[in-house]
Amino acid sequence: MNRRRALAWRRCAGNYLLMDRTGDGPIAPKRTFYQRMVLREVLRRARKRRGDPLSPEDWVAVWELNDTPSARVIKRAWRALPSSPRCGMCSAPFAGPGRFVVRPLGYRPSRKNPTLCATCVELSPPGGTEMYTGVLFADLRGFTSRTEVTDSQTVAAVLRRFYGCAERVLFPEAIIDKVVGDEVMALYLPDVQRRITREQVPRLMYDHAMELLRAVGYDSPSGPFVEMGIGLDVGEAFVGNIGERAVYDFTAVGDVVNTASRLQGEARSGEIMLSERVAVGLPGAIGAPVELELRGKRNIERAYRVALRSRS
């Protein structure tokens, strides 16, 4: 994506990239009447009561509605509305005159990725299903001790700069699942993000991790403005809107998420720790192999350590 299109994505995201930077989680938007009507129809077809989570089978069926004749008609109608950028799943336009048609229906850029609409992501029905998932965790090193000797405004400015780096590097391919304090969690979902394939996920994650290290200043003469370590893993995870009623959120859970988090904890400043599952999907040998006893894991985890140091 060229610079002009990248700037367009950021402009169209605008105020819809609403993320609570205090660590209390995302700010949940309200559903429109149209979205509530669609959800009621989904629950009726699944023979569920209001508030009941959908089973994995029901949730897959909901996503498969994207390929039904009626859904294809809606997509063609959305594509006929000017202009780009637009949702990568349903084609709803986010800019130009078309936005005045779809916004009242709830089709606005998702706060997790401005290349998808909220209706297709966090406002999709409750529940979820197993799918192939790449997970990236990036965490700041020594940030807690830094906050003890730094005023809160300076800390907030550093975090905003860090979050900005994450958005510039990870969008549009990744979904930023969580921004909690000094940590970012990103998901790579080829079944959702049709722009990427399963085979591309390991390399894309690794490239993003390297870009993120460079974005904060590693491999530069001045050095990083924050110390950071990154963990990567890929595999099957349960993905969907998880939780209860107003507090549920689009996220992923499972061993692949836990492993990526534990690997991130093992990464030193300026390092990427990637699982063997990620390494298998990369061309050639990358990093130094290590065997780790990760907290909560019964078996030894084989991983690879890649370092990017400052030139200062």
Furnish the topology, listing elements before pairings.
Elements: H1 3-13, H2 33-45, H3 56-64, H4 69-80, H5 99-102, E1 127-140, H6 143-148, H7 152-170, E2 175-180, E3 183-188, H8 201-215, E4 228-242, E5 249-253, H9 255-266, E6 271-275, H10 276-280, E7 288-292, E8 301-307
Parallel strand pairs: 4-6
Antiparallel strand pairs: 1-3, 1-4, 2-3, 4-5, 6-8, 7-8
Helix pairs in contact: 7-8
Share in helix: 25-40%
Helices and strands: which structural class? alpha+beta
The CATH superfamily of the largest domain bears the name Nucleotide cyclase, GGDEF domain
The CATH architecture term of the largest domain is 2-Layer Sandwich
Q: CATH class of the largest domain, please?
A: Alpha Beta
Radius of gyration: 20 Å
> Kindly state the mean pLDDT as a whole number?
76
* Tally of separate helices: 10
As for the CATH topology of the largest domain, it is: Alpha-Beta Plaits
**Proportion of strand residues:** 15-25%
Measure the end-to-end span: 31 Å
Outline: globular
Describe the structure.
The protein is an alpha+beta fold. The chain has 2 domains: 3-125, no CATH class; 128-307, Alpha-Beta Plaits. The chain is 34% helix and 20% strand. It has 10 helices and 8 strands. It has helices at 3-13, 33-45, 56-64, 69-80, 99-102, 143-148, 152-170, 201-215, 255-266, 276-280; strands spanning 127-140, 175-180, 183-188, 228-242, 249-253, 271-275, 288-292, 301-307. Strands 1, 2, 3, 4, 5, 6, 7 and 8 form an 8-stranded mixed beta sheet that branches. The longest helix is centred in the middle third of the chain and has 19 residues, at 152-170. It is globular. Mean pLDDT is 76; it is low at 1-28.
